[in-house]
Amino acid sequence: MRRYGKHTDEDDIRARPNRKGNRPRTNIRPKHEDAAEGMVLTVDRGRLTCLVGDRTILAMKARELGRKAAVVGDRVALVGDLSGKKDTLARIVRIEERASVLRRTADDDDPFERVVVANADQLAIVTALADPEPRPRLIDRCLVAAYDGGLTPLLVMTKSDLAPPDKLLELYGDLDIPYVVTSREELVAGEAARLVQDHLDGKITAFVGHSGVGKTTLVNTLVAMDRRRSTGHVNAVTGRGRHTTTSALALPLADDKGWVVDTPGVRSFGLAHIDPSRVIHAFPELEPGTVNCPRACSHDEPDCALDEWVAEGHADPARLYSLRRLLATRERKEGD
Questions:
Q1: For the segment 230-259, what is each residue's pLDDT rounded down to a tens digit?
Q2: Of 45, 34, 37, nearest to 69 (Cα)?
Q3: How many CB atoms neighbour CB 315 within 10 A?
Q4: What is the β-pairing status of strands 249-252 and 259-262?
């Protein structure tokens, strides 16, 4: 066995040859400055459908992106075969910075957050007024996620022919959230689409809601006939809808003036990923009043400075109530 001392002659050391004849691996990655820009429309088992110009491209994520995953709404850079022809596959080499992110967890004890949609301008929270019954706690959770992710909320109430919207409007009127009320007849006749579309033009809108509330039915009236998705029904015994939408999908509005993103129906909307302290940012008239709050104030305790701030006339008391109701959803289960 050959041994070397402290002072070896480097020329005498033998190097193992590279049998493959390729260059050694490096941390330097290509910049792909000539990559084409695209938008992710849907994700299915590792394959991403992207819109590049006027072509629909099937792509996969480049290995160099590591664990970073692209989601619906992401702006991405692609290389490879961008023809969009059958059996071709492009490669996503870069995911651009996101302007907004809608996240959720399975429940409040789940530490794993899921990015549902990226770069959406607003979140349309769809709820039925009956069949199934509205779930205010779930609506509140969606509102918190929208505020935290940088999306503007829009409340869409369906099936007004089965129950009046007064109760929900009384709950959410103080939040100054734009809303639309539609009936089943308006949905079938297409009138509901006109009412909702006034809020969608020029925007990317993610639709979220409990199964069976008519979310996908509404989305279908907003897009071209050949892009419509299948719909289900509400179980008469359980009052729950059947999941007919299994993956998020971005679809252009029929007039091409905006985008809608149909997401799978949810039965829970966990907020484990959201720091309650960030919810206050959605209430700019209350935020200055937190300066004198005790350290780590929950904004719902006897020493909270917001009570005095509101009493001095700086904000409407109803807004403080709304803030506390939203913050409380971070501690409650959505079915309470």
A1: 554 444 433 444 444 568 999 999 888 899
A2: 45
A3: 20
A4: antiparallel
